[in-house]
């Protein structure tokens, strides 16, 4: 009867329902913080790439 009772998509649906019921007030703040963190990470990665491109390469063996 419950041979394939809990498949991964069942767990996904349960997780979405739990998040919607218990964490709905904190979701906008969490999403905002995640977006801000991603923007910071992206800008820092770009700055590191630009800094590497501007530095002249030196040969460590000479």
Q: First CA to last CA: what distance? A: 73 Å
SS field, number of helical segments: 2
Q: What is the succession of H and E elements?
A: HH
What fraction of the residues are assigned to beta strands by DSSP?
A: under 5%
Largest sheet: none
- The proportion of residues forming helix, as a percent range, comes to 55-70%
The number of distinct β-strands equals 0
Membrane topology: Single-pass membrane protein
Keywords: Cell membrane, Membrane, Protein transport, Translocation, Transmembrane, Transmembrane helix, Transport
Function: Part of the twin-arginine translocation (Tat) system that transports large folded proteins containing a characteristic twin-arginine motif in their signal peptide across membranes. TatA could form the protein-conducting channel of the Tat system.
InterPro entries: TatA/B/E, TatA/E
Topology of this protein?
Blueprint: H1 8-22, H2 27-54
Fold and architecture overview:
The protein has 62 residues and is mainly alpha-helical. Helices cover 69% and strands 0% of the residues. The radius of gyration is 23 Å and the shape is elongated. The model has no long low-confidence stretch (mean pLDDT 84).
